[in-house]
Amino acid sequence: MKCEYPPETWKHHTVYTRVRRLLAHPGFMPQGRRIPKDFTRFLDPLDGLSGLNDTVGHMVESLATEALNRARKEWDPNGDYADYEFVLRKRKFPDVVLQHKRRRGKDILFGIELKSWNLLAKEGAPSFRFKASPEACAPGDLFACFPWVLEGFVGGKLRFFKPYVAPARFVASCRNHHWQCERDAASDASIPCAEGIAPYPETENQRVSEHPTYDGGQNFGRFARTGRMDDFMSQSLMEPLHGLPCGTWCDFFKICRWDPTKKAGTKDRKRMAQRASAMKGKMREGTTTHGANRRLAQGIERCLRAIEGGRSAEEALRTELKGWLRVHRLSPS
Q1: Predicted local distance difference test score (pLDDT) of residue 48
Q2: Is residue 88 domain-resident?
Q3: Residue range of the domain that includes 310
Q4: How far apart are CA 16 and CA 11, in angstroms?
Q5: Phi, psi of 86 (to 5 degrees)
Q6: What pLDDT score does 332 carry?
Q7: pLDDT averaged over consecutive 10-residue blocks of the chain (333 residues)?
Q8: Rounded to the nearest 10 degrees, what angle do helices 266-289 and 246-256 cross at?
Q9: Where a domain ends, among 237, 264, 289?
Q10: Is 8 inside any structural domain?
């Protein structure tokens, strides 16, 4: 399925292209923001790695809207759109729209749906659901997913990376095609057509989402599973954090979540011990080469040695994460 953008004959094509390129720039999102203390002080150092997406998702919506309006000179250098501004809309699709300042909701040029992805989350892939119908997406609407990490894993400053940006209608169409034609599913893969769906509904009650006939696993809308984001995900997981790729950290946390006390057989213990041993060398080489804090490298080894010995590393990891936060002065403030 081809990714198509609005034609160059569209009268708003120039401003649209400028915004799209601005949005896709690695430095678009402001760096160094902190998660509000109320959201982080009760986080479990292990489970909290995947528990902040909703909080950061709301921050992404606000930060992106502010960044777009601050960058007006880049997307409207001649003042042709002085009467327009980007507006964040709560509980509406898309999240942000470029609309007339005085004709709110009546004169929308295009919109942007925003998602976020915690690179250290246990899934190792974006888990967002995008359920908007292709008919609810105007030709100029965009979809953007911003990868992020906290510098202290579960505390400290937010760091954003280069986003995935594509036409929203393309994302919705690929999702439907994958659901109906590409999955190996024995269940009914049909998606009933809903009537009355159109871009920018005036009320919250008007439907914009699609729902398949059967979705027992609640997986409809997981665009990351279509394969269209694979290159983007691979590149994002190579982004460095404390001297190591984020993907390596993700693998490390996955290994440390393994609990040998829960139905772990001899083969399973041996396999995990081998994985821990291989990971230990990989982590040691990376942290030493990039001059990471010695305590960080030593803490990694303590966690992985626990697994090599057939023990749970959860408690060790909880302790180490708290220590790393203190050493790097990354605890919430």
Answers
A1: 56
A2: yes
A3: 240-327
A4: 10
A5: -85, 135
A6: 39
A7: 88 97 94 67 53 84 96 97 94 94 85 94 90 95 95 81 97 95 87 87 82 91 95 95 84 74 66 74 63 63 78 74 60 39
A8: 150
A9: 237
A10: no
d(CA 84, CA 109): 9
- Residue with tokens 């401003």, as numbered in its chain: 15
- For the chain, what is the domain count? 2
Comparing C-alpha atoms, which of 41, 40, 46 is closest to residue 313?
46
Amino acid at residue number 289: T
Write down the pLDDT at residue 164: 97
d(CA 170, CA 176): 10
Three-class secondary structure assignment of the chain: CCCCCCCCCCCCHHHHHHHHHHHHCCCCCCCCCECCHHHHCCCCCCHHHHCCHHHHHHHHHHHHHHHHHHCHHHHCCCCCCCCEEEEECCCCCCCEEEEECCCCCCCEEEEEEEEEEECCCCCCCCCCCCCECHHHCCCCCEEEEEEEEECCCCCCEEEECCCEEEEHHHHHHHHHHHHHHHCCCCCCCCCCCCCCCCCCCCCCCCCCECCCCCCCCCCCCCHHHHCCCHHHHHHHHCCEECCEEHHHHHHHHHHHCCCCCCCCCHHHHHHHHHHHHHHHHHHHHHHHHCCCCHHHHHHHHHHHHHHHCCCCCHHHHHHHHHHHHHHCCCCCC
Residue 6 lies in a domain: no
> How many residues are there in the chain?
333
Alpha carbon distances (Å) from 249 to 143, 273, 282, 288: 27, 17, 11, 15
Task: Note the pLDDT of residue 281.
Answer: 72
User: Is 279:288 a contact under the CB 8 Å cutoff?
Assistant: no
Q: Which of 197, 215, 237 is the last residue of a domain?
A: 237
pTM above 0.85, yes or no: yes
pLDDT at site 330: 45
